[in-house]
Specification:
mainly alpha
């Protein structure tokens, strides 16, 4: 097996960023409620990811690792304004809140939302159903 060339690694990193940028920005915007700030948030995540890209590729789920970074950066940048993301994260576990935001708020197909978060589809489905159940129980009363 030949070692990956630096150019191959760079191309892979750029492809990952390009494939996910738009969805990441849309998600970040649910936290910060400002498109320009959402873009800066995502670029900060990508800038921090670039020097760690090879080690991230060696993790069990690179997409999940990057998703955790994105969630943390977006939450850090929020102005505590009662954004949609803050509201869901206040009442649901992080992974549940994110799958609800991606699938219901951003209207992404569950398969795409699962890939963004680095989850298998059955896990994403279970998280979504659990979140929907928790939300309906919480707001029925």
């Amino acid at each position: 097996m030949r070692r990956a060339r630096i150019s191959d690694i760079r191309i892979g990193f750029e492809a990952f960023c390009e494939a996910n940028r738009e969805s990441y920005v849309r998600y970040a915007e649910k936290w910060v409620d400002d498109l320009a700030e959402a873009r800066r948030c995502v670029e900060a995540v990508f800038d921090a990811l670039e020097p760690r890209w090879v080690s991230v590729l060696g993790t069990q789920s690179p997409a999940a690792r990057v998703w955790e970074d994105l969630r943390a950066e977006a939450a850090h940048r929020t102005a505590d304004t009662g954004s949609p993301a803050e509201k869901f994260h206040a009442v649901l576990r992080d992974d549940q809140a994110d799958i609800v935001l991606l699938h219901h708020d951003l209207r992404l197909p569950l398969e795409r939302a699962a890939r963004l978060m680095g989850l298998d589809r059955p896990i994403a489905q279970a998280l979504l159903r659990g979140a929907e159940r928790d939300l309906s129980e919480r707001f029925e009363a």
